[in-house]
Amino acid sequence: MAPHILIIDDERESIQSTQVLLENNGYEVSSVDHLAKVSEIFVKLVSGEMKPIDLIILDLDMPWVTGGELFKNLRDWCFAREVPVVVYTAAHARKKDELIREAVLRGLFAVVPKGCPEFLLVRIKSALMSKSGFLGLQLRTEKWRLEEKYLFEKGSLEDPDYLRYMELCFYEQGELGLAAECREKRERLERGK
To answer: Where, residue-wise, is CATH 3.40.50.2300 in the chain?
Structure first.
């Protein structure tokens, strides 16, 4: 079965050219060109109307949200924690290097400049082949970011970020039961907001 790739980009032309490239290389493709449509995709995923996503291609420089912010939100939604994200962007050409730095610091799998379709295909294949390695990188990056925060401030069991940090620590130590308890409490708190 062909891997399912989701493209998130505000430029329709870019989506269309990337979609043609991917479909010609045997991938199944879905796309969204606006933030509101991203949540529609997740509703379809949760309800089973849509095949699970194997990889996300994300633009960084969008008018409604930066790719880094959207990536954080995607990771917070449980389905995307295990999905590699490849950035396909023209931010470098627009002198927006800070967006690229932010993406790298957040633990994205790869950043590919738009206009390099062959390199994009290489990075997609790499990401799909190393999903478990990607998940480990994601977890380490997220734990490191949270560790920095709680190095200087005391955590609270009523803080979802602190509970996520504890969950990652327990997960890393193989304490899966304690990790699950932290995750459940964090999810209850987040639903209550």
So the answer is: 4-130
